[in-house]
Amino acid sequence: MPVDEDTLSALVDAARLSTPQLESIAQGVLGASVANISNASTPAQQAKDMAVYAKQYGLLRELASAVIQYGSDRAGLQNLLLGSEAMTNQTEDQHGISVNALDIV
What is the pLDDT of residue 72? Predict the structure, then answer.
């Protein structure tokens, strides 16, 4: 999956990250607060603004990595990252079991 602004927004949306969680990531990876990067009020738009900022400074991959690490226990993010590739060769019954196993969180 290529890392760009849209990919990062999808990761944040799937992980259901809040503004305080994005703030923690922004401080750690970008060295700036969300308020200094974005005037937006929704996490989805804040994430897009963070992605633009990160791209400007060559930190897009680092930002995506931090989002994945922060939300690694979230079923939505697991399904986004593993859904299409990990389940390609499974039978229909196995597919249902795998998807349900990821949704237990």
Answer: 87
By the 8 A CB rule, do 75 and 100 touch? no
Tell which residue, 73, 81, 69, has the closest CA to residue 24. 69
Q: How confident is the model at residue 105 (pLDDT cuts 50, 70, 90)?
A: very low
Q: What's the rounded Cα separation, in Å, for the pair 100 and 75?
A: 10
Q: Which of 48, 29, 30, 31 is nearest to 39 (CA)?
A: 48
Evaluate whether 55 touches 2 at the Cβ level (below 8 Å). Answer: no
Least confident of 30-34, 67-71, 78-82, 93-97: 93-97
Quick one: how far is CA 58 from the chain centroid? 18
Dihedral through CA 3, CA 19, CA 70, CA 6, nearest 10?
-10
Q: Which long-range contacts (CB under 8 A, 24 or more apart) does 56-59 make?
A: 57/30, 59/29, 59/30
